[in-house]
């Protein structure tokens, strides 16, 4: 576990609020107050009135902390969409893909930092983002094959009744917010076919001043005969592995829903600002994929829409 240097040299208690929490730091929580500590301690050696809090992630509108005594993760903030909880419930109900268990907030008995919060069981292991640089070629091959196998299982999740007439849509039936397919108007119109998806991407490309492939883009985009359930943002930072490099959990389901069958592939093959060797990750995922898709049109659209 990484140990961060203390930001404060005194032991002044601070209110338990998001602005007083920093990513990567440890705190002792007691009576809605926090005290920063230099490293993790055994939470079971603390008095019953105290708990160890770890801050896993802090971004605008989203805070992820761990209550160590009860091994519970809380993800809260205005940027945490209801679709994430609904997606994890669907995956848990219909597959054996490892995802966090949703915990009812009434069973947690921990103060909330925001009305919009998801309580989840803690997934053991380390992120693939941290492990990837240490893997040899054989281990990378095995991890990627594991992931594609899990993706196949995810794609088998049955479509609920409220999605029967829709070709594409988030897991909770809300409007899509993805940069490629978010509706320019309001209210949002559903995408009822693969042709609708291509038309929406083309519409957004033109609206945001895409001109190089003004006429050619619709024919450059991939075609799908069906839509399937997809995570929508699979990357090493969202994948947990154990000491044997077995995948123990897939996290961050806020983009999940029903998409054209190529969707998971094109989002894996997307460069991201990360400290993992992204080209190496994409090369291995492409090498181990059982089906590959032409990315020419998607790359052209991304140069304008991302």
In short:
InterPro entries: AGP_Transferase (IPR051678), Aminoglycoside_PTrfase (IPR002575), Kinase-like_dom_sf (IPR011009). Residues 84-272 form the Aminoglycoside phosphotransferase domain. Helices cover 26% and strands 19% of the residues.
The average pLDDT score comes to 90
CATH topology of the largest domain: Aminoglycoside 3'-phosphotransferase, Chain: A, domain 2
What is the radius of gyration? Answer: 21 Å
- What composes the largest sheet? 7 strands, antiparallel
Oligomeric status? single chain
Helix content bin = 25-40%
Write out the strand line-up for the largest beta sheet, numbering strands in chain order.
Answer: 1-3-2-4-5-6-7
Q: Judging by the overall fold, what is the CATH architecture of the largest domain? A: Alpha-Beta Complex
CATH structural class of the largest domain: Alpha Beta
Structural class: alpha+beta
What percent of residues are in strands?
15-25%
Query: Element order, helices and strands?
Result: EEEEEEHEEHHEHHEEEEHHH
Number of domains: 2
Shape: globular
Features:
Phosphorylase Kinase, domain 1, 2 domains, 7-stranded antiparallel β-sheet, Aminoglycoside 3'-phosphotransferase, Chain: A, domain 2, alpha+beta, 306 residues, globular
């Amino acid at each position: 576990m990484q140990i961060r240097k203390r930001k404060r040299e005194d032991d002044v208690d601070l209110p338990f609020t998001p602005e007083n929490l920093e990513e990567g730091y440890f705190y002792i929580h007691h009576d809605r107050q926090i005290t920063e500590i230099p490293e993790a301690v055994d939470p079971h050696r603390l008095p019953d009135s105290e708990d160890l809090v770890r801050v896993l992630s802090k971004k605008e509108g989203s805070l992820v902390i761990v209550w160590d005594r009860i091994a519970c993760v809380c993800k809260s903030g205005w940027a945490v969409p209801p679709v994430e909880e609904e997606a994890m419930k669907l995956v848990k109900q219909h597959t054996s893909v490892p995802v966090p268990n949703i915990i009812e907030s009434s069973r947690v008995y921990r103060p909330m930092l925001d009305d919009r919060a998801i309580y989840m069981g803690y997934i053991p292991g380390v992120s693939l983002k941290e492990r990837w640089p240490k893997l040899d070629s054989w281990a990378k091959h095995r991890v990627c094959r594991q992931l594609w196998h899990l993706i196949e299982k995810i794609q088998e999740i049955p479509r609920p009744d409220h999605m029967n007439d829709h070709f594409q849509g988030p897991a909770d039936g809300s409007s899509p917010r993805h940069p490629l397919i978010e509706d320019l108007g309001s209210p949002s119109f559903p995408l009822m076919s693969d042709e609708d998806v291509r038309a929406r991407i083309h519409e957004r490309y033109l609206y945001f001043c895409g001109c190089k492939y003004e006429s050619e883009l619709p024919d450059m985009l991939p075609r799908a005969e069906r839509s399937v359930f997809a995570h929508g943002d699979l990357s090493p930072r969202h994948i947990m592995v154990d000491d044997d490099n077995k995948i123990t959990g897939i996290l961050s389901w806020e983009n999940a829903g029903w998409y054209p069958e190529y969707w998971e592939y094109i989002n894996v093959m997307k460069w991201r600002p990360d400290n993992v060797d992204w080209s190496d990750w994409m090369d291995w995922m492409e090498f181990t994929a059982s089906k590959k898709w032409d990315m020419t049109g998607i790359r052209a659209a991304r140069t304008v829409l991302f």
